[in-house]
Design brief:
Blueprint: H1 2-17, E1 23-30, E2 33-39, E3 47-51, E4 56-59, H2 67-78, E5 84-86, H3 92-95, H4 98-103, E6 107-111, H5 112-120, E7 134-136, E8 139-144, E9 147-153, E10 163-167, E11 172-174, H6 195-208, E12 214-216, H7 225-247, H8 252-258, H9 274-287
Helix pairs in contact: 6-7, 7-9
Length: about 290
């Protein structure tokens, strides 16, 4: 959790410094299912608002400093208060608004491991008031009128508490951070994540989709099955390229210098560069 706290410390000032510029937009991807994104700066991962008949739920709630603005936006989008919140994982850019939403009456749901980690350090949920009230193991299903939302736990992926939300009737999937679309993913090995588990989880999600499925990633733009396949292939090929150098007995610094991920430079972004992704692969291959 110390690494998580450092991550939040590094991200929060960015949001605070830009909070006068950051706004939120909601796009209805299917009737009653809205993808919510920050605009104008880093406001956390992609979220969703689910407006059913008589009930309103949400997936993730961004960073703590932006929670009040986010709550106002999604309440307007939904036409009423948010009754239920599902956290896809423990990180503060997805669960940071928990405490603020809970103060307004929202009930927070999350995997057992998320609550366990937040009991150690509640800063990732905006404080102790953001602890999940209801936890689940393998999953839980929400019935919001005509919207059925199946929350499924996928182990040892981005973290040890990841959940993906599948809307079979609407043919929509929210992946949480098991998908960073068209950018290198952050795989939090210090919070129970693994590269092998991450790829396995992605393949599981991919198998749930068809050519018409709309996929909301944890970070990146709305995508589909073909777009997700490209991201999976990048990880499989990138890991293989690093493994070939590990098998030659090269050190991590030598491997970084060899630039095994050069073909995937377009996936670089501010937080996860080719070098950091290479080091993640190396650590996975030599410790998992």
């Amino acid at each position: 959790m110390k690494r998580l706290a450092l991550l939040l410390i590094s991200l929060a000032p960015v949001a605070i410094a830009q909070d006068t510029e950051i706004t939120f937009k909601s796009t209805e991807v299917e009737p009653g299912i809205f993808m919510v994104e920050a605009v104008g700066g880093f406001g956390g991962g992609n979220m969703a608002v689910l407006v059913g008949e008589g009930h309103v739920a949400m997936i993730d709630d961004g960073l703590p400093p932006l929670a009040a603005d986010l709550l106002a936006h999604v309440t307007e989008t939904a036409g009423g208060p948010i009754e239920f919140m599902v956290n896809t994982h423990v990180h503060g850019d997805h669960a940071g608004g928990n405490a603020h939403f809970a103060d307004s009456g929202t009930v927070v749901f999350a995997h057992d491991n998320i609550r366990k980690r937040l009991l150690e350090d509640a800063s990732g949920a905006g404080g102790p008031g953001g602890l999940p009230v209801i936890t689940f193991g393998d999953g839980v299903t929400f019935h919001l009128g005509t919207i059925e939302a199946r929350v499924v736990h996928l182990p040892m992926a981005h973290t040890d508490g990841d959940a993906v939300i599948h809307f079979p009737g609407a043919n929509v999937i929210h992946t949480g951070d098991i998908l960073f679309h068209s950018i290198f993913p952050y795989i939090d090995m210090d919070s129970g994540g693994t590269v092998d588990g991450y790829i396995a989880a992605q393949k599981k999600i991919w198998s749930m989709a068809d050519d018409d499925t709309k996929i909301i990633p944890g970070h990146g733009s709305l995508t589909d099955k073909a777009g997700m396949k490209a991201d999976i292939d990048m990880l499989v090929e990138g890991r293989a390229a690093v493994k070939a150098l590990v098998d030659q007995g090269m050190s991590v610094d030598e491997i970084v210098a060899a630039e095994p991920l050069a073909d995937f430079d377009s996936y670089d972004w501010g937080f996860i560069t080719s070098e950091r992704m290479t080091r993640t692969f190396y650590r996975s291959l030599t410790t998992e």
